[in-house]
């Protein structure tokens, strides 16, 4: 059996670092990204694109820098060298991570980075801005005489389609997390605390070669009815459902995998709902094809649930949230498998597939795997769960 029978110490002692590591994103690929972004920026009628700190800055420059009150950003003109808007005292740190050639627009603590950006573009210029740029920065840029347009077509338009190198990195991180899931299931025993499982999963992600878990949700029994858990400690009992949702990073790319399975004997209703969840996940996967819309995938999962008397829409018992989300350098990123998102599916897009079923205050089942769109349909990054009793196939 794949559930129970081992210990955290035994599993960590036999968990080797990941051997088949995907290659990092090359400098040539980043240059190609910049060229695509320039073309989209020009098509939007702007002279330059401003990319805020965060996942998109990493996508274009390699710099893993989170947003803060200080502006750190890429200013990408339609023609000319990229420019890194950078606090002068952070220059060395940022240059150490910079994976492209770029000029520096340095600003001191008593100076305005907005003035640097406005001077670089020129009076009355049009700037395409990152959709995640803080509102306050946008207002200051307008106040400096710039016209702002939406930079999402240039930024999200590039990030939406993953390259072969990105698919390889995503494949590695998901395979690593699935192995950690396997190991976590083996340490389960009556009375174990959810926090102990969380600590093990973090240690296992470190042992396998990640920097720990990016997040970890461990739920037992009634807590599984709450999509992101309940506060306080939980202890595992015979006959509980176990729901574990966790992930890690490889070169900034995310995994996010959920497994739900039985610890001991569970009732017929739990088994029926688990089987229905698996059917809905499979229906969503089967609906994927180039040219279809994102919302059509969500519709496919909901049709299965509604035919079984659940829902409709987001009503409970049923599916309270979207069927899936895009994934890459952000754990949740455009596009989304939800009603109203009419983004056309195309090869290279990557999504979670997780049409969770919730029976309020009783239990819930979420099976979450990820797929990428191919020329003919979809391909799983990880094999879906085997069964409620044997989640990893032996």
UniProtKB/TrEMBL annotation:
- Family, per the entry? Belongs to the peptidase M24B family.
Q: Name one GO molecular function term.
A: metal ion binding
Q: Could you tell me which residue ranges the Creatinase N-terminal domain spans?
A: 33-161
Q: Which UniProt keywords apply?
A: Aminopeptidase, Hydrolase, Metal-binding, Metalloprotease, Protease
Stretches assigned to the Peptidase M24 domain: 174-375
- GO terms (BP aspect): proteolysis
Superkingdom is Bacteria
Name the record gives this protein: Aminopeptidase P family protein
